[in-house]
Amino acid sequence: MRILIALAAALMVAGATTAQAAAPAVMAAPNINGANVKAHLTQLQSIASANGGNRAHGRPGYLASVNWVKSKLDAAGFTTRVQSFTYGGATGYNLIADYPGGDANNVVMLGGHLDSVTSGPGINDNGTGSASILEVALQMKATNFKPTKHVRFGWWGAEELGLRGSRAYVNSLSSTEKSRIKAYLNFDMTGSPNPGYFVYDGTEHKPVIPGSVDLQKRLEAGFASFGVPTELTLVNGRSDHAAFTAAGIATGGTFTGAEKIKTTAQAQKWGGTAGQAFDRCYHRSCDTMSNINDTALDRNADVIAWTLWATAA
Ligand SMILES: [Zn+2]
Question: Which GO terms describe its biological process (predicted)?
Answer without folding.
Answer: proteolysis
